[in-house]
Amino acid sequence: MGRIKLHDKEFDIYLSEETIQQKVRDLAAAINKDYADKHPLFIAILNGSFMFAADLFKHLTIPAEISFIKLASYKGMKSSGQVITAIGLDVELHGRDVIIVEDIVDTGKTLHNFLPKLQHHQPASLRIASLLNKPEATQFPLDIAYTGFVIPDKFVVGYGLDYDGLGRNLKEIYQLAGA
Ligand code: IMP
Predict the structure, then answer these.
(1) Which residue positions in the chain have pLDDT lower than 70?
(2) What per-residue string of b and e applies to 79-88 under the rule 16 or more CB within 10 Å gives b?
(3) Which atom of ligand 1 is nearest to the CA of 107?
(4) Packing angle of the helix pair 50-58, 17-34 (nearest 10 deg)
(5) 59-29-167 Cα angle (round to 5)
(6) What sign for the dihedral angle of Cα 23, 29, 30, 35?
(7) Residue of the CA atom closest to atom 9 of ligand 1
(8) In angstroms, rounded to a whole number, what is the distance separating the alpha carbons of residues 89 and 92?
């Protein structure tokens, strides 16, 4: 199916199921190699990363653990702005090799605000794995250790990512038509 409609907007196919699955296998292979003698803890950020996290995890051959968290942001009392809280972060991070699993890094703001909170727990190491990265949209530069696809600054849906709640179930990734 080349074009789909979600709510009021049309989207064109951008990354096929096979293209995504091959990339996920490649990312898992890289992680298996880099963490060969380790026992990493994956922290997947909901909702968007659920599908990527599940597929990535299936291809890991090292001993690995996974925990899912949800981030909530609210305006702090001070002018410093956004405060991020993690819901469901119930695993001890101290001394662990942590890999954050994200669906997409857009402006980078979410992780930029959240990483210091994780660092506070003194993990042995902390890396980011993101299926998608939109470098043209970057406002808060991040060091992303594992990137699936570098994509243009256009809205995408599918494979866990949504447009106003819809599209997460798609096996492919679609791009906003005519954007
Ligand atoms: P950031 O804080 O700007 O990097 O935004 C990250 C979050 O925004 C992602 O985890 C997604 O939930 C959402 N997001 C950013 N771009 C897109 C997109 O193109 N499609 C769907 N969700 C997106």
Answers:
(1) 1, 75-81, 179
(2) eeeeebeeee
(3) 3
(4) 60
(5) 55
(6) positive
(7) 104
(8) 8
